[in-house]
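Course assignment 3, question 2. Fill in each field.
Student: A.L.
Task: Predict the tertiary structure for the chain below.
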Amino acid sequence: MAQQSIVYLNGRMVASGEAHLNIYDLGVVLGATVSEMARTFRHRLFRLEGHLRRLARSLEYVGFDAGVSIARLAEIAEEVVEHNGRLIGAEEELGLVVFITAGESVMYAGADATTRREPTVCVHTFPMPFHAWAAKMRDGARVVTPSIRHVPPQCFPAAVKHRSRVNYYLAEREAQAVDPEAIPLLLDLQGNVAETNTANFLIVEDGTIVSPTLANILPGISREMAAELAVELGIPFAERDFDAARVAMAEEALLVSTPYCIMPAVRINGKPIGEGRPGVTFRRLIDAWSGRVGVDVYRQVVENILVGDAHPTESQDCSGTSRGA
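Answer field:
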């Protein structure tokens, strides 16, 4: 029988087929879950430290006591990736998910003696599905602004990465009713661009990369990376509000997210952005990104092949320690 991948669940390493949540878990009942997702390059975790720092901030805000330190979670993540990485091909990569729920609902469980009063802690991996992003990376993504709005920071801080995401689900359904390949780009209550359901969103305006302000968006690890690379490349990086009309008039637009790093967006609500094709800023950034991680990110996604130097640049390793962050 083929060896199974492993999952860390509540203090134990178990086979992936044996990892289950109780139906009373508040992650299921209320979506009361904070989470992080990292990825590997050449089977080595990238910027794990930054992801776990953000997880620590999320835990502090929601008041979950995970019962395991951030340092220990880093060790667990490395152990899970080391084991599961042996089960995939050398050209494949893993996504790593860490999630922590509020535990199980005493009210729903009733007298069930097995109910966990402490948070549920899980660390697992999945093979990166590069094929799902290949066409968008090559030709550019199309975004649609749905009527569903971004949850305002008055409800909970945008800096908390959580799984209470039914608004993202509804936004995606609405956008894909217009264009089956569209990605929803959510606006805030004032009509300013916030983020997509899976990525931070940037535009290029008068040669400057512009991000929505952090008051209204998740401070993405990949967004941080894009800002660092922009500085290295001599490209100005700014934060300010902008609406969908400004996106349509921009020179370029970019999606930044952990799985595919950076992707061009070429149309919004059916209108071309810039020249309606991937632009020079995208190419400069993805080339610089590839140099950082020692992998041709573009070809890895588009052609699903591993190309590049076997070692990242000195300014950024893939062990989880971000020297430049």
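Instructor remarks: The mean pLDDT is 92. The CA atoms of residues 62 and 188 lie 23 Å apart.
Grade: pending
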